[in-house]
Amino acid sequence: MIDEYLKAKKLGDKAFHQAVLNGQYPYIACLDDILQGKNVSARRIAIDEIPLRQVAGTKTSGRQNSFAPDFMPLAGPGSEFAGKWMNVYKYQVSQGVADAVQVFEYRHRFYVQEGNKRVSVFRYLNMLTIPADVQRITDGEEDALTKEFYAFFRCVPIYEIDFREVGRYKAFVRMLGKNLDEPWSYEEVRKLKSLYYMFERLYLKQHPEADSGTISEGLFVYASLYGLESLKTDPAAAVASRMRKLKKEFDLAAKEETVVLADPPQESAEQGLLGILPKIVPVPALHAAFVYDSDPEHSGDVFEHEIGRILLENSPGGNIVTEKYENCDTEEKLEHALNQAAGHADIVFTTSPVQMNAALKAAVQYPAVRFMNCSLNLKVNAVQSYAVRTYEGKFLLGALAAGFSRDHRIAYIADYPVYGTIAEINAFAIGVSMIDPEAEVFLCWSETLDEDWKEQMMRLGITVFSGPDSLEQKGENTEYGIFRIDENGNSVNLAAPVINWAVYYEKLTNMVRNGKMANTQASSVNYWWGMNAGVLDISLSGALPYQTRKMMQIIRQAMIRGTLNPFSGELHSQEGMIRDASSEGLTNEEIIRMDWLNDNIIGSIPPFQKLNDAAKKMTEISGIGKMKEQI
User: Fold this and answer.
1) pLDDT digits over 398-454, tens only?
2) Cβ atoms 408, 435 nearer than 8 A
3) Are 499 and 481 in contact (CB under 8 A)?
4) Which SS3 state, helix, strand or coil, does residue 351 take?
5) 327-385 tens-digit pLDDT
6) What phi, psi does 243 have (nearest 5°)?
7) Rounded alpha-carbon distances, angstroms, from residue 404 to 203, 480, 483, 493, 494
8) Strand order in the sheet with 41-51
């Protein structure tokens, strides 16, 4: 027995010294210290098997210093503690310890009241679970993720699943075709737990030191691509192959780092000159495929991407061959299109965030093909994302709209509360307030179950609008971009944002051809370019006064040079100050994840249940934090 204890102590000493080197506490945590000063309550849950990976410490400080952070022993081999530890070990390997340890659960972690040495022995023996009598402690201050876990646990009493992002539990349950409206049956719970442990066993072969959160995030990635049932129904060799191919995705999911935003390529003066001269040396051919969830006649977004594709293929000297796949609006159609495209394309562009999972599945299957997805802030390694800094154009349009409002009121029509949308709304409102500090921006959402946005605003007598950007809603009128209603009730267009997808796609394909794409070895890369990359601009009506056009040009140039930033300096939300006057500006991540509204906005972010089906689908993929909490 002494040899086993010395091995365990060696592991404990190693964990102790590593914690000291990392500047961390070198012993197990004490729940009493964590709860000090809090008003808590406790209730008994049940006697159950709990995952040892989630045992974080002890309830009281009495035995705290006897264990390293990994629960391995620290006491000398001749101590009374060592003798008791060896007795527990001997009993476990000869007969098996049946008694449940007593633990308190606090925020999805366990703290041992009685049975610390049993936990230590079980961990040393690499056991996954231990029987425990569980009491749950709450303090009324639980974060959104913990509350979501409690809601999950009420219907699906499984401790092992330990997601790290808000919205994951609800998305996971939907993925399984279930809900959290009522408790699952015993058989359903048992089956899910069994599938979890099948996945965990395979995952630990790649990541032997993984914690429960890392394993659960990997489980979500796998299930979103292949379904959990495949762990049991598909050949073991096929499952193992998928796990190997997904290793980078698992590695990325294990990290808490955000998406890396890549800058546009810097073109030298020489490159610029060569760009206007005839191509002397032919460039190698490159094949690009574009995959659409609709068609140009029925979707303004698809129409704009399609114009970009056509111009890309016809760019002088580009030597680019393109093809398109339209109306890939089901999982089967999308998978078929991606498989076909991967057979001969060098790069495949999927043009909607809802296509990301299918693109990832194809990218893992066809690693020689470059897959990209038009989305923002989705954490994926094998598929690079691209999006436009549309808030820059909205800021200019806000300044323009303010000059045409006679009653200090402007309507803004948004579509989905997803990453980037709130930044567009706020940038517009800030642009408005810079020209007219008294102006108010009335916010409507076009993709909700409410009445028609135009009718709402017309009843209020508002005559200046920031309407839909997509050409699909243009038709024979001018109710897109910035427009106003004249005295005869006619709409008059003033300006509109313009995304130059041809330029964007040319830059991306050139980067692929020249091997200049950002390194994705261990990160998620998103190309998020704006006016300074030439992929975004605004189109002004020829009827605008020359003074207005001059003002727009001045602001536009300042945006391109980076000397004007709508989110620098003092910022105020509807609830109060966000940044004071000395602020250098929000970070890119803060802009992308923005979930507050500027103080001159009348309106709110709609609840998830008020969105229509298309908006809900989009929001489930890339909705802002407040939306993820409601799903």
Assistant:
1) 999 999 999 999 999 999 899 999 999 999 999 999 999 999 999 999 888 876 777
2) no
3) no
4) coil
5) 999 999 999 999 999 999 999 999 999 999 999 999 999 999 999 999 999 999 999 99
6) -60, -40
7) 60, 16, 9, 12, 9
8) 29-30, 55-58, 110-114, 101-106, 129-138, 41-51
